Amino acid sequence: MNWIKTQNNTVININEIPTLHIDVLRHEIMNEYRHNKRAIGFFGVKNRLFTVLADDFNSQILVSSAKFFEIKSYSSLTPDIPAFSMFEREFFEEFNIEPAGHPWLKPVRKIENYNFLKSDDEEVHEVAVGPIHAGIIEPGHFRFLCRGEFVENLEIQLGYQHRNIESLFLQRNKPLIHLAESVAGDTVIGHATAYCNALEALTNTNIPEKSQIIRAIALEMERIAVHIGDLGAVSNDIAYLMGTSVFGATRTLVINTLLEICGSRFARGLIRPGGVAFDIDQNLSDKIYSMLDSILTTVEIIIDSMFSSSSVLSRLDKTGIVSKETAHEIGLVGMAARASGVPLDIRADHPWGSYKTLNFEKIVMKSGDVYARTYIRYIEIKQSAQIIRDLLAKLPENADLLTQISKPLSPNSMVISLTEGWRGEIVHTVLTDEQGNISRYKIKDPSFNNWNGLALAVKGNGISDFPLCNKSFNLSYCGNDL
User: Fold this and answer.
1) Which of 157, 251, 383, 384 could make an SS bond with 229 (beta carbons 3.0 to 4.6 A apart)?
2) pLDDT digits (tens, 9 = 90+) for 189-209
3) Within 10 Å of residue 406's Cβ, how many Cβ atoms?
4) DSSP three-state, residue 279
5) Which CATH topology does 4-100 take?
6) What is the residue extent of each domain of the chain?
7) 3-class SS shares of the chain: helix, strand, coil, % to 5
8) Angle at 474 between CA 260 and CA 278, to 5 degrees
9) Among residues 421, 395, 182, 403, which one has the least CA distance to residue 272?
């Protein structure tokens, strides 16, 4: 066997993972891609390259590896599988093993001496935006090549937020949950869930049923809050000021409810290894039900008005298109992928915790434009509200919330933890050494997959549509830079 098969949050022995010659591994990856697998991990540990593929149709994960201590280069996968581009660039940046033939071998996080694409065409001009922006956002640089008002190429340079956060997870006897909550500040619950699921798997810890339910409720509340906020941001970029005001105020109702649950509007401190630190009693349940009724009524009224407006539709429809074929080819994930017709959702494909008990249907649109990436948020808000209602109905009373983790981490082990954050697929892969210490902590935020989607979405559009395309993806700078 050239692969070991596992599942979400299931521990495997590192010694049982096949070790192939890198050329053989490349051949195996190509073969699995022909059978509808996709990459969710491609990273090195010392002198060993690990490859992790997802089999979404069978809820399985495939893992293999190759030694590279005597290898200076290998034949790049990217020309045949464009979804590997960022993975190979990151691996090259960390280990200096060249993917020969890679068409765009540029740094992922090292911003020094970055060479942008140039054009010799005198009719093409450059427009540079960032890394310092007019708004209060994280730093990133966008370099446009434009012919008149139309974008011929967009190159996105990130790396300004590089915190070396993966290495910080190697600290011993530290409360690493705070790091997990800080991977991406708008996805506290998503990353905290992935971290805790991985840790609990490595310690063979079963958390209480009520804690699983509360975690899922919080994750869906995070999804609702950010989606509503993004509807307001899109409204602002098209001068639909009623939406800007109302969606902004409505988002506050959701995050203030999280504040009532745990004392933080972003749910910091709620999810902890072994369960959750705060309960949802009957009083809080009633408040959540009431909040959901209120926000859905408001959102539906504004959405109906917004999408009945010809001026709104003229800005959203057929702007920033990413086709289904392109989305699949470059490996888009999450909401952006589903808006382009790619039916990928970890809650259904690799369910965990309370999601295993839900009758979950994936939401997919087809047009792949700003319209789809905006409207799908509205549909997902309604879906998440129903999920929360279903979960609240299952909440047991007077149940335990935390299981004390007393066992050490399983030695010589690997676990892959997948979570569907509001932006898309989150992957935390943890490896331990012979003493049971964490030897590698690899994180993949959905932004890692999707920044290239934004660059492709903008091509052929007017440069004035870039802010709108950008908002429709709403990607994380720090989630990519790590």
Assistant:
1) 251
2) 999 999 999 999 999 999 999
3) 8
4) coil
5) Beta Polymerase; domain 2 (3.30.460)
6) 4-100, 165-481
7) 45, 20, 40
8) 20
9) 403
